[in-house]
Design goal:
Blueprint: H1 10-20, H2 31-40, H3 53-67
Helix pairs in contact: 1-3
């Protein structure tokens, strides 16, 4: 059984987001949507209030890398 994901699991979150939202236009992505989608991922157990802009940016950049 995989361990639960938290905010610092940047690469795993990016991979999960790509699998869940493969058609999203990353150039138009709002951090509010990104935050919500992360919190809704199966296996995510982080506190939604524990995120910050730096973490969201890191996840966003990893997601862009994952897509390329």
């Amino acid at each position: 059984m995989p361990r639960p994901l938290g905010w610092t699991d940047v690469r795993a979150l990016a991979e999960a987001l790509e699998a869940a939202h493969p058609d999203v236009d990353l150039e138009r992505l709002r951090f509010t949507d990104l935050h919500r989608w992360i919190a809704e991922l199966p296996g995510f157990s982080g506190d939604p209030k524990a995120s910050n802009e730096k973490l969201l940016e890191a996840i966003y950049l990893a997601w862009r890398d994952e897509r390329e």
